[in-house]
Amino acid sequence: MGIFSSTRVPPPKVPTDTVIPLREMDSLPLSVGICNEFSFYFQDVLNVHKLQAALDRLVSKEKWRKMGARLRRNKDGKLEYHIPAEFSEKRPGVLHSQQTFATCIADHPVLSQIPKGRGEKPVLMHPSWHFRPHMRGPNSPRSYEDWLYADIPQLAVHFVVFKDATIFTLTYLHSFMDGSGLATLTRAWTAVLRGEDDSLPPFIGYEHADDPLATLHQQRPGSDYLLAPKALKGWGFFVFVVRQMLERLWWPQEEARVVCIPSAYIKRLADVARAQLDAAHRAKNDDGSGSKPFVGESDVLLAWWIMNVVRALKPAPSRTVALINAFDARPLLTEMGLLPRPEAAFFGNAAYGCITLSAARNYLRSTAEAPLTPLAASIRRDMLTQRTVEQVQAQLAALRESLATAGRPPLYGSSDMMFFAYSNLNTFKLYEADFSHALMSTEDEDVPKANPEAYRRGTPTWISSTSTEAGFSPRNTGLFMGKDKAGYWWLFACLRKGAWKNIEEQLKAHL
Length: 511
Known about the structure:
InterPro entries: CAT-like_dom_sf, Plant_Fungal_Acyltransferase. This is LysR family regulatory protein. It comes from Pyricularia grisea. This protein is an alpha+beta fold. It has a domain at 18-114 and 127-209: Chloramphenicol acetyltransferase-like domain (Chloramphenicol Acetyltransferase), CATH 3.30.559. The chain is 30% helix and 21% strand. The chain has 14 helices and 17 strands. The chain has helices at 24-27, 29-32, 48-59, 132-135, 144-148, 179-193, 234-250, 263-284, 297-313, 330-335, 361-364, 372-386, 389-405, 499-509; strands at residues 18-21, 34-42, 70-73, 79-83, 95-100, 123-125, 156-161, 166-173, 203-204, 254-262, 320-328, 345-346, 351-359, 418-424, 462-469, 477-483, 488-496. The strands form 4 sheets. The protein has a 7-stranded mixed β-sheet with strand order 6-10-17-16-14-11-13. Strands 5-7-8-2-15 form a 5-stranded mixed β-sheet. A 3-stranded antiparallel β-sheet has the order 1-4-3, with no helix packed on it. A hairpin with a 4-residue loop joins strand 7 and strand 8 (166-173). Helix 3 (48-59) crosses helix 6 (179-193) and helix 8 packs across helix 12. It starts with 17 loop residues before the first strand and ends with a helix.
């Protein structure tokens, strides 16, 4: 019995459906086992009918119809997409739902508390789970089985409309799309909303044979992967699993929170880090030769956060901290000629991870010893060395080899490691998604907003992320949604219960 076993019976097959196997990357438990929900909050009233019609029109277009596929297993247990020959009210391309209130959002007991960026220091906010029941559809799917055993499309969209605000929530499996796919969807949706259907990017990967990742692993061996010598095997992997089980025995509960971080705060840290790196470079190179080291704000942001988390968890200084920093491989696929351009509509999963390994003591040093700068520099260095054509090819080869020999994805590090995985969606500019062509006139549209510099009509003010996992824990994972128009970074993270109290104390003590 697997983690996805069920006594439920799937709907009967429809003979006119087009059947396409899922890609191997999209069939992994980590892909089909995650149900994502992204909620977009607007300080505007949007025309839901226009939004629904535009999305339905997008999904009805030739290869874009794959978005309306039904998920099924064949007789061999392999996952497939079954695409209806045409979409109808009975078999829609998108699962729509709507709730309308005759009041302002300020009158709602829960959604009135949607967080807003404020102040000059990082602060903890209400968890997204606090709002989730009020932003998702009552019949929206919640797990892999809800898709497998019902005749529903891959995407569910629920709209919540107030007299002065609109929220819509996208619900889908991670196998359907990654962060880049979400950005592609919003760009395509808004293009159709504007009537610019001709500007849609080419849809790649409709057929199984049209998969740009299909032969990527054949280009070089997995042994070429830089982290290959650090792969956990045999006894080392067994010890790691036992330690993870003990961790969940001692700390069985976990908690997700939202962190709001002013960009000005991170910019100050980044300026200090760059100055320290520049000074160290000049000290080593009196003549100014050699390439100057550089760290971006995203590097500093991630290093700062992981430093806070490690200190809150208080591990032994000798323990290894393994940090997976996800990146989008589409630009590299374009470089290899496998995609026509990075913005092509390639749905599914094309995200890989840069891995930074470091002893916990490097995160535990006092602030006076400036641990942030070398940590940010190591994150940047590993991104530069691992985010290459050759390393992506080798990493995928290592993944295929591990799946074939061990039946699982590989793990890199040490048997005692603390394992973290984070993504940063800022590069996808979700806060710039322009739905202004769906704006409706309201009585208060001329009333000045409280923070006008952070407000542009038809664009989201806040974007929330929640997920439901099947068969594994989201502990020690997180997502940087990006930087909003007011200049605040938004982080959604999950840690073992109790760690957040330490985080809060640290934020107050060091600011």
